[in-house]
Structure formats: C-alpha cells, structure tokens
C-alpha cells in the first residue's frame, strides 16, 4: 500500500514532483486535500478579476498568445491604447460589487516605459482606494520600476514562468526565462508579493510540468499566488492545433502544485470556460482555491459570474 502523506525533499526537485504525478489518482487527491486543509479553509475560494488595460501590439513571440504584433492579422486582435483612468475605476468598482477581492491589470508590453508606468501607478492607487488588492502584469521590469510600484502600494506582480526551463525556447524566443526570473527577483526585493505560475497543455511532457512546479516551489519564498492556466488554443497562434490534454492530467498538476507549495493560493486561470463543472470541482478538491472571476480575461472568455455563483452554491463554496 502506498503512503500518500510522505514529505517532499527540500529543496523540491523535478524527480520528487514526478513521483507525485505518478501516485494513484485517489492517493494524490487525498494527499493534496490533506495539505490544503492544513493551511486553508477548504470551502473558501479567493476571487480575482482581470482587466486588459492595453491590448495587442506586443513585440514578443509567445506561441500561446493572441496579442503578439507578429500575428495581428491571424488572430484579429486590434491594437489598443492604454485605458483611461476612469474606465479602470468603473471596471474595478464593478468587480468589487460582484465579490472580487483582487483586481488584476494586464498590458501587452515587453515591458513598460517610465511614462506609461506613471499612468498605471495612478490605476493602482484607484484600485487600492476601493479597498481591493491590486495586481499588475506588465512584462519585464526595468531598473527602479519595481520600487516605484511598491511605493504606490501594489500588492502583487504577476510574471509567469510559463513552462519548464527545458521547454521554454519551444514557446518563446524573444526573451529568456532567466530574464523573467530577474524581474521576479526585483519584485521580491522591492517587497511585493509574487503571482507566478504557468500554462499547461502546450505539448509539454509530464516531466516538463513537474519541472515547472519544482522551479516555482524552489523560489525563496515560493510565489504567494500560483496561476495554473489551461491552454486556450487560439486560432491564428502557433499552438492553435495543440493536442488536447487529458483532464485528469490537469487535475494532477493542480494537486502537485498544492502539495509542493502548501501555503500558496493556487488559481484556476485561463481555460476555465472550457472546463465542465465536474472538472472544476475536482480541481477544487485537488487544492485550487482561487479563480479569475468575470466574463473575460485578457482576450479569452471566462465563465460568467452567474454560472460561477451557481457552481459555488452546488459545491458549498464561498468567497474570501
């Protein structure tokens, strides 16, 4: 009989996470739920809302993304300007009224220019004045920019590792994963929390998924928020024909992330619109305790609020 409660080695390595993936499904979920209950209320889900404050025209070549300037015609995404402050305020207020406690803003940039950053900082202050946590994803940060964001009161900076290091150049070639790490370290040094995860279902192997989780768990400390995205295969992107991922493999990924990062919020992020209620329930059982809440993410769809509320009621879940 397997023992599903054996502790992981420290530091966590890829082999240890692969061993989690290899557990019988019931043992893996039992272990993940046990860990989850040691650190969180198992029936509370943190809700975040994501707003694209600047869409399209990005200079990067991320294979999963519809906002790359290299494929405007293929994806049909129009390049937009940075939103006005009042538009952000209205969206943040609406998100709070619907139960979101964190408001995340994303801009399709390689990294922000200082003038744009000053405008975004005004948005952060508006969100904070509403009593919500504020999160930004703006790409790679330059010298001094993390400190300016911290001084403005930003709670979280999102910058995903996306995939395991050995698979990274299959997905992105215009910058390295090491550059992403440098931004994460500057965010941490500035005193902000990190939101950092990855995308599952891009054609990577189980070992690559395990490697990604091991990388995240080995950050010191691990990210406070870990978004696990299921690839949305967007027409016009290089991954539009990516092979479908076994849903149970996605649940295993959630469970492995929960066990490897026991005190982090693990968020069901992109791809939730394509998930059945039953699959989402399994993910919550596996330790996911955060979702993106609202009808749209940056450019892809998301379950509407009424559907989420109905699902929460069926499962006895509440917001936090």
What does this structure look like?
The protein is α/β, with parallel strands linked by helices. It has one domain: TIM Barrel. The chain has 11 helices and 10 strands. Strands 1, 2, 3, 4, 5, 6, 7, 8, 9 and 10 form a 10-stranded parallel sheet that branches. α8 links the parallel β6 and β7. The mean pLDDT is 90.
Question: Summarize this, please?
Answer:
The protein has helices at 14-21, 25-39, 72-75, 85-97, 114-129, 145-151, 177-189, 206-218, 247-260, 277-285, 305-315, and strands at 44-54, 102-107, 133-137, 156-158, 193-195, 198-200, 225-230, 265-268, 290-292, 318-319. By secondary structure, the chain is α/β, with parallel strands linked by helices.
Query: What's the number of helices?
Result: 11
Structural Rg: 19 Å
Briefly note the structural class of the backbone. Answer: alpha/beta
Mean pLDDT: 90
What brief labels describe this structure?
11 helices, alpha/beta, TIM Barrel, ten-stranded parallel β-sheet, 320 residues, single chain
Q: How is the topology of this model organized?
A:
Layout lengths: L13 H8 L3 H15 L4 E11 L17 H4 L9 H13 L4 E6 L6 H16 L3 E5 L7 H7 L4 E3 L18 H13 L3 E3 L2 E3 L5 H13 L6 E6 L16 H14 L4 E4 L8 H9 L4 E3 L12 H11 L2 E2 L1
Parallel strand pairs: 1-2, 1-9, 1-10, 2-3, 3-4, 4-5, 6-7, 7-8, 8-9
Helix pairs in contact: 1-8, 2-9, 4-5, 8-9, 9-10
